[in-house]
Specification:
Length: about 375
C-alpha cells in the first residue's frame, strides 16, 4: 500500500475538486443538518438531475424538521412520488419525529448518535457529520468503495465483511487532518466517483482527461480498472404477474392503501391480486383469457362483500399489461378497467373513492401515477403535483 498516496490523497482530491468537481449544487455550502440530511437521503438511488428538480420543492414544502415531523405521512409520500424506494420517505418522516422527540428538534453532531436515527446508516451519518458539523467522519457509499478498491488494489467482493472492513479502515485513514476541510473533501469523494472514477466508463479509459491518481492507482497499473471492485454475480431477477382493478364511478377511482411492509408500502395504489410467479406459458398473460367482474373482485378484494344489485352493474374491459422493474424483481400488472353504476361501499378503511382532480394529493407508485394521469388528462384534469 502506497504510504505517499495515503499521505497526499486528501490534498490531491480537494485540488481536483476545485478544478473539475461539481459546483453550485443546491445542497452544497450549507451547514443546516436538516437540509443536508434530506439531500443525502434523496440522493440515495436517485439521479442527481432528478434531485436537482425535486429537492428544492421538497424543502419548500417541508422547510424544517418540525414541519416534516408534524406533516401527515400521506403528504410526505405524495411529495416523494416518482423518486422511488419509498421506504426512504417513510424513514424520513419517522426520523424527523425521532429528532423532535429524542433530541429536541436538533440533529446530534456525533456520527454514532446519527447512525441510531431511523433510516440513517454509517455512511450517511458520516456525510451529515462532515457537511453540517465538520466532523472528521468517513463515508463509504458505492462510489467511494469503487475509488478505494481501484486505487489501493483491494481484491475480493465488496459485499464480503472482511473487504468492507478494510475499505472502512482506508476511508478513515485517508481523512484530511483539518476539520474545516471535511465538507469539500467529502463532496469531492462523491463527485470523483460519480463523474470520473465511474463504474463502466472511468475517465482514465476515455483519454479525455488525466486522472490525478493515474500513476498511483493499482487498478490502472495492473490493468484491472474494470475488474475492481469485484462484485458477487447476481442471479436473474424473478418475474411475477398480478391483476389490478381500476374501478371507476363517475369522476372517482377506487384506491387502496398498501401495507407498510409491502413494496410501495404506505402508498395508495389500485387494488391488486396476489403476485404469481410468471411462467412462459402462464395463462395470466394470454390475451384470450378474460375475467368477469365477480371473478376479478374475488381476486383483488377477497375480504370484501361486493354488492351485485341492479344499480351496481359493472362493465369490464381488459386494459394494458404494464411491466415494472424493481431492484430485485419484475412485475407484470394486468390492468382491468371496471365501471360501476354506483359508488360501492367497502368495509376496509384502506379502500377509498378518490376524485380524479384530487389524485395529486396522494402518494402513488410511479407506474400507477402515470396510468391514472393518462386517465385524468382525458377528462381535463392533471394529477401532477
Amino acid at each position: 500500500m502506497s504510504e505517499a498516496l495515503i499521505k497526499h490523497f486528501a490534498t490531491k482530491l480537494i485540488a481536483w475538486h476545485g478544478k473539475d468537481g461539481r459546483q453550485g449544487l443546491p445542497w452544497q455550502s450549507i451547514r443546516d443538518p436538516y437540509a443536508v440530511w434530506v439531500s443525502e437521503i434523496m440522493l440515495q438511488q436517485t439521479q442527481v438531475a432528478t434531485v436537482l428538480e425535486r429537492y428544492p420543492r421538497f424543502m419548500k414544502r417541508f422547510p424544517t424538521v418540525k414541519k416534516l415531523a408534524t406533516a401527515p405521512l400521506d403528504d410526505v409520500l405524495a411529495e416523494w412520488a416518482g423518486l422511488g424506494y419509498y421506504t426512504r420517505a417513510r424513514n424520513l418522516h419517522a426520523c424527523a419525529k425521532q429528532v423532535m422527540e429524542e433530541f429536541g428538534g436538533e440533529f446530534p453532531k456525533d456520527p454514532v448518535l446519527l447512525e441510531q436515527l431511523k433510516g440513517i446508516g454509517r455512511s450517511t451519518a458520516g456525510a451529515i457529520a462532515a457537511f453540517a458539523f465538520h466532523e472528521r467522519a468517513p463515508i463509504l457509499d458505492a462510489n467511494v468503495k469503487r475509488i478505494l478498491a481501484r486505487l489501493f488494489g483491494v481484491d475480493g467482493a465488496i459485499q464480503e465483511k472482511a473487504v468492507n472492513d478494510e475499505l472502512w479502515l482506508l476511508a478513515k485513514t485517508l481523512l484530511p487532518k483539518k476539520a474545516p476541510d471535511m465538507p469539500v473533501y467529502t463532496q469531492a469523494l462523491m463527485d470523483f466517483g460519480a463523474t470520473w472514477c465511474t463504474s463502466r466508463k472511468p475517465i482514465c479509459l476515455s483519454g479525455e482527461r488525466k486522472c490525478p491518481f493515474a500513476k498511483e492507482c493499482q487498478a490502472n497499473l495492473t490493468n484491472q480498472i474494470l475488474v475492481l471492485p469485484r462484485k458477487v454475480i447476481k442471479e436473474k431477477s424473478p418475474e411475477f404477474n398480478c391483476d389490478m382493478l381500476l374501478l371507476r364511478h363517475g369522476d372517482s377511482v377506487l384506491l387502496q392503501r398498501r401495507s407498510e411492509k409491502a413494496i410501495w408500502g404506505g402508498l395508495w395504489s389500485l387494488p391488486e391480486s396476489i403476485w404469481r410467479a410468471k411462467e412462459k406459458s402462464s395463462p395470466a398473460t394470454d390475451n384470450a383469457v378474460n375475467l368477469t367482474a365477480k371473478e376479478l373482485f374475488k381476486l383483488v378484494l377477497p375480504n370484501e362483500v361486493i354488492s351485485s344489485t341492479s344499480k351496481n352493474y359493472y362493465s369490464i374491459e381488459r386494459g394494458l399489461d404494464i411491466k415494472h422493474v424493481f431492484t430485485h424483481r419484475r412485475l407484470w400488472m394486468q390492468i382491468w378497467h371496471v365501471s360501476s353504476g354506483s359508488a360501492v361501499k367497502f368495509a376496509s378503511k384502506d379502500l377509498k373513492w378518490v376524485p380524479l382532480r384530487q389524485l395529486g394529493q396522494y402518494g402513488l407508485p410511479q407506474p400507477i401515477k402515470l396510468l391514472l394521469q393518462g386517465l385524468s388528462l382525458t377528462r381535463g384534469d392533471d394529477l401532477r403535483n
